[in-house]
Structures
1.
Amino acid sequence: MKMLFKQRFFSWFDSYDIYDENGRTLFTVEGRLSWGHCLHILNAAGEHIGTVQERVLTFLPQFELYAYGEYLGCLRKEFTLFSPRFTIDCSDWEIEGSWTEWDYSVVSPSQGVVASIGKELLQWTDTYVIDVLDPDNALCVLMVVLAIDAEKCGRD
């Protein structure tokens, strides 16, 4: 399953639209006013299905993940020198990025490659192509991409 992740050009807070390969809207993401990033994920019908909330006052960036009102776990950035790495405490997923921080792989020792994420260059806004092998993982992978993008925006 391929998803196209596009940041909206004009918005006060972070907001994104996520499309499938045929251009249909799968998810909408709306930023909320809070300490740290707070992103609400809505399905195509406009129902709130997930939240990515940044923890503040931590040494390295951390993001709490919620799906359907339940806490899933925390995504943490690991200390590395050249290429970024993130882990999620609710699964065995590891997220490894290239040194340019444009391409990421979500891998699992038990499942292998879960998803690949690539940033499209020469776009007006942040745009990613997300290739998820199992559509059941689409929401969690989207949360990973949102957290990574929020971490990069917070640094810039």
Note: The chain has a mean pLDDT of 88.
2.
Amino acid sequence: MGTKKISVIVPVYNSIDCLERCVRSLCAQTYEGLEILLVDDGSTDGTGELCERLAAEDARILVRHKENGGASSARNAGLAMASGDYIGFVDSDDYIDSYVYEEMARALEEGKYPVVQISRDEVDEEGKRLPDICIPPENERFCDSETFIKELLLHRGDSSFCTKLFLREIFAGHRFPEGELNEDFRLLLDILQEIAGICILPKQGYHVVCRRESTTRKRTKDSFSRVFLDIVENADKVQELVDRKYPALHEYAVRFNLYQRLDYMLHVPLSQMRGDNAFYHNVKKYLRRHVGDTVINPYLTRKNKTYLLLLTAAPRTVRGVHGRIMKLRNKMG
């Protein structure tokens, strides 16, 4: 084991408080044929200097410094640097167990799979375990592409590139879409159309660290992450893909579309819920056109349907009430 080289790409931006833990977990891998690519995406807090210090300690670490362009831009720069037979990704916030790349490489080689996924858990900044978002299988299993897409549409699948190991050739002609925040989902859909499926390993060896500072968390009542726009646009893209290539998944895709718009409606600031906001106006029109789908779709929960119908009927009023309820819960909690 270890005859094939693995390139692990780590996009880095102002990660001085967590990068060393991430890199140490990579250096501790039992898989020997590893190169670790730290792509400093224009950090301003000393992270770039930390990358150089870490590289001086381990010859497997290579560093590239570039102007800030976002995580996708950094990953694409890493892909241009990579010399490995297999490609992996790790976010600088996160860390992995020592066996992860040996296990994934074993599965790739033994099963002749194009992609292998390790299961993950989520922890807070203090290391406290959070509820699982993606439930790991009991045993190693192969999931064909159509089934994997169905799991994504039900929000049970893992679209992250960080939990996966890829054959290098998969990225021929593929790069991460820059300027988007739902980039993993978008690119994974493109890749799934070209491969038979993904092997999923049961061990939760990848640890996602949920930090208080997050691109999806609002800093003021009027700030709003672009991710909530991207998830709606990607929902439209997956609907088109499903109806063209996987018609048996139509109802799942409708459910996904409605759910993503519900997520948008629950996060868009009240100040942006106005008639001259074209995106908001189009989301509202979509929900009104699909009231029937909201009612009959078997894959939406009763709670989902209730919120969707209320937000379709009186979005600003419902959001105001919802905001007051959440504030009260936070005070009591």
Note: DSSP finds twelve helices and nine strands in the chain.
3.
Amino acid sequence: MFYIFEMNKEVQRGEHANINSEFFMIALNGSFKITIDDGVDSKTINIDNPATALYIDKMIWKKMYDFSQHTIIMILSNRYYDSNEYIHCYDTYKNMMISTNKNKI
């Protein structure tokens, strides 16, 4: 479990995919937008209710932005942090997803 906090409207987080990690994201306070992308389809979701969680499977590209003031996000993960499992280049990610032909959203 980890938290993301002290962001503002200009900040963007994410912009990566994780090879092995799955996440549940919960906005404990405030709101934000997240765009998730499986290399073919993308969807933007407004997260603004602490009674709901967003599940993000492994190998989903994510970008979080438009944070309201005092946003606190709790993230539950199935794995410990490992910098080697991050894909930071969208073109690399998209090529990996197209070659495996696995739509996930």
Note: Residues 22 and 58 are 5 Å apart (CA to CA).
4.
Amino acid sequence: MKTKYNLFFAAALSSVIIAGCANPAAGMNHSGSWLDESVPSIYQTYKDKFDYIGMASEYGNFGLTCSGDRYTGTYTHSDWGEPNELYYQEVQQGIAKHANSITMGNEFKPQFLLQWWSGNIGDGDALVDFTASNGKTIKVPAKLNGENLIYATLNTAKKMGVRMRGHVLTWHSQTPDGFFAEGYKPSYSGNLISNKVSKEEMTARHEWYIKTVLECVANWESANGYGPGNHIIWAWDVVNEAMADDASVGAGTWLRGSTSGTKDKNPGDQGSRWYQVYGNEEFIINAFRFANAYAPSDVKLCYNDYNEYMENKTDAICKIVELVKAGSAQTVNGNSVSPRIDVIAMQSHVQAEWPGVAGYEKALKKFLALCDVHVSEFDVEADSQAKAAKAYGDYFKMFQNYGKTYSAAHKITNVTIWGVNNENSWINPSQQNGKTTYPLLFNLVNNVDKSRKPESNLPLYDEGDTYATNDSFWAVINAH
């Protein structure tokens, strides 16, 4: 995603009931609870069109206490953080009714799995030797500080009966600067890390991180009865947002960090520490090679980006996909491994009038000539509910033309909505900046507890609240 979600939430686990019902007849639109029997399931409605309908959600990052085995035990919130979304049984039920895949907004990002909140490794964090496939022996953290967050989140998905898109392994944002610095403790010269590591050491760290995350997931799967053909994480965003908004393939400046708008800048200002270490696309090709080495062969590997329908950026994404596909085989973990990319993931943070269905479809067709496509983070920025609903209907009418019944080799296999409700969306959320927007399919109703003050100052779900369908939801249903 382009912009961060809130950082700190708490959560607990509950069992869920998966519900579904038939499509409504035309004219049955109403603003009912998303759990009402009269409200159809989105993913059941579209199961003839897409393998997965997804929703993004938050579990939260907080102190976790485990009762029992770390892979199969019960995790509970222990000492800090605000509960939100997957903390609550009704939210689990609602997501499981309407989606068969989830994407976690923050929980699988490097920032949350490393948990170096000061931007560098903690003084008390132990280091061990790791010998990478390039022959480089380096010091790496003995563990991921956020490892339990992986298991707790996967436990919740298992209880809900849904699968997950893993988001994200390699990203310029929300990756601590220390990850790129000697001793994991950065020094600076202006916007740049002055003690950045060599490419060889960075490649070794990159392999260690991807290997460690994917092995944590594999160990959890083994302990919980998952395996070939039935993975809890069925797809990974291997690399996220590595193309520049001002990309120019013809000029040779197309990677984030190479262009006038991104060169020598901080990650929060469009820069990339990855590019600052490598100066080229080598790290992207490495990422897809390492992911292919350590992920199951039946798990989809994705490149994910936003503004992907801007023509210059469309061309940049196509170029990196072609370069990854042409990447050479190298020895990784004792095996000869080529880079593998299966999916171009179109984030699809659209505006009501831009890029428009025709502009979006033009980019989509270019991507489908190369790979399957995931619509990975769909939402609509609109200043009225009517505009939002029209956009949702128009886009879903178009999406399904490229789903299961599409005659070409590559198809849209997944559509994920980026969030649960309008009141707690990353995209110009209501009651913030003096602006109300209508990006999502449900609205928060009956906010029973006004005493909580989350860091974001956004309305949060409390026990006893519910979500109601809005006109955008019914536009999606009626577009089928």
Note: The longest strand covers residues 372-381.
